[in-house]
Amino acid sequence: MKALIVCTSVSHGNTRRIADAMGRALRARVVDPGQVDPEELSGFDLVGFGSGIYLRRFHPRLRRFVRALPADGHGRAFVFATSGLPGVPFRPLERALGQKGFRVDGAFSCRAFDTFLPFRLVGGLHKGLPGPADLDAAHAFAERLARRSTKA
Ligand SMILES: Cc1cc2nc3c(=O)[nH]c(=O)nc-3n(C[C@H](O)[C@H](O)[C@H](O)COP(=O)(O)O)c2cc1C
Fold it and tell me: Is 113 helix (H, G, I), strand (E, B) or coil?
């Protein structure tokens, strides 16, 4: 199975650490949206899309990248995020990927270091996260996706 992970991680590298753990499980390259041609994605069986959450949305660079994808039927996708607060708004990204012909097959999120005001005033929220347990959970999530693909 050929997998790729597209990740925007601008604040503290939180989401990148999660993406790297998933990438190890899937033997997948992790790239920023600026490092991959949208046309290339149809060559992958599984593509992950993730970022931190900014004002209740995925990062604009990731959303712009998804909008630029050709709508000509891709393979499977999964979505992931790190955020300060629970309740990650996955639906709009999942819907946008569905419109591009992806079958979205899983979502992963965890809490991570957050320095958005007002948390910055108190040194930030969740210092030290994502931690080893989050990285293990991300790795296990990706392994489950890989196993599902070999059964299909
Ligand atoms: C300007 C700003 C806005 C944010 N907005 C939210 C938000 O709406 N909801 C939330 O749960 N976390 C929010 N966060 C926290 C980030 O989602 C969190 O720190 C994330 O792990 C950053 O990922 P990154 O280091 O990969 O960029 C915000 C952080 C910043 C700096």
Answer: coil
